[in-house]
Amino acid sequence: MPRYLLMADRVWDGLSARAAEGLAVLVEESKIEALIPNGEIPPDVPRIDLPGCTLLPGLIDAHVHYSGVMGAAFLAAGVTTIRDVGNDLAWILDRRSQHAADPNLGPTIVCCGVLHDGPTAYWKAMGRPHADADALRASIQLHVAAGVDQIKLYAGLDAGMVRAGVAEAHRLGKFVVAHLGSTRAEEAALSGLNEIEHFDQCAVAWRAASEAEDDDLIALFRSHQVIMCPTLVVWDRLGRILDRSLHHDERRQWVHPVHRDIWQRYLSREGAPHRRWRFQAAIPHLKRFMARAHAQGVVTALGTDTPFPHLIPGFSVHDELAMYVDAGLRPVEALSAATVVNARVLGIGERVGRLAAGYVADVVAIEGNPLHRIDDISNVHSTIHAGQLFTPAELPSIVQRTLNQQPDDAITRDLLNYVNA
């Protein structure tokens, strides 16, 4: 239908403190035309009635390594936009174009290209090695010329290389994300880095630090406007990789068999238990630090690191949201991180992340009210992506076609090489 109304019990626009009642969302083609009081809706426009539901902006996962077999799963979970933070450059640019042309293929993609690593690339397919700062600058120039949206720096870069990479990307007008390894968070913040993933090299976040220790790093993040993307769920899953409840998660039906096999053979399943316990023990500290940082004004994005073990495409966003609320954020704050805040962080806040006139018609209908009870976020009734309606009941047939395909993408090749090593 070129023009139709979404009629639900509640509508949350992405900015308000609570969902509103008595509003309908008018969609025309791929855009939201207006939010209209129910008493003023035009009589001749077709209606999609969603009783008992809350309409939210489409969810956004800001930390994904995309595979071509994930698209339908993201839509089934209400995720209409992702940021790919490490992939083969030509492949992900092509996928971005395909998804932009055909919303049926999966979520809108914002991409960074490769993982810009140090002298040795840890992930051979997703990453690219750089012997020195000049090589890193040249690679960033190539990426910007190719049309990436943002730049991703990786763990093998020391502090000098991070400074050089951030400076070059900023010179070219690009936002910079980093998974730190050889550079401390304090050094990265002082370099002008825009966003830190996973709390890597944020030492105080991983242990029983004092409030004063927390606040020193938080103040540095705030003064340098460093955004945090905690990805709590990936650390939780790596710590509990042997947890049988995760192996019986019914949502695994959305995961390709090759990826499920990788999870079953992931190397951290073996070896000394303390390597898993480290992550288990760290989760309360990571939650503590995130909640304190958020309360003091550090911008909190939301990402998952899909498809690492037990991270189900799209649905792991629901799990990350629940962890944010468990850490002390109000449901509306957690949902803001996955919608309007993520949209701004990804540089697309003028067109997605809100339900408002002129915005892309990316909408998820949730049975219940996740602003009151965050667990309701898993009750996805339907997803509207760029004006096209999808229901979880219809999407399994699309997934089944992808399950019959052999994934051939950078993340799958790297993870297979890892487990086969």
Summarize the entry for a quick read.
The protein is α/β, with parallel strands linked by helices. The protein has 14 helices and 17 strands. It has helices at residues 71-76, 89-101, 133-146, 159-171, 185-191, 211-223, 232-239, 244-247, 257-264, 274-295, 315-327, 331-345, 395-403, 410-420; strands spanning 3-11, 20-21, 23-28, 31-37, 47-57, 59-64, 79-84, 108-111, 115-116, 127-128, 151-153, 176-178, 195-197, 227-229, 363-367, 380-385, 388-390.
Structural description of this entry:
- The chain is α/β, with parallel strands linked by helices and 421 residues long.
- It has two domains: 92 residues, Urease, subunit C, domain 1; 297 residues, TIM Barrel (Alpha-Beta Barrel).
- Helices cover 37% and strands 19% of the residues.
- The strands form three sheets. Strands 1, 2, 3, 4, 5, 15, 16 and 17 form an eight-stranded mixed sheet that branches.
- α7 packs antiparallel against α10, α10 crosses α11 and α11 packs across α12.
- The relative contact order is 0.18.
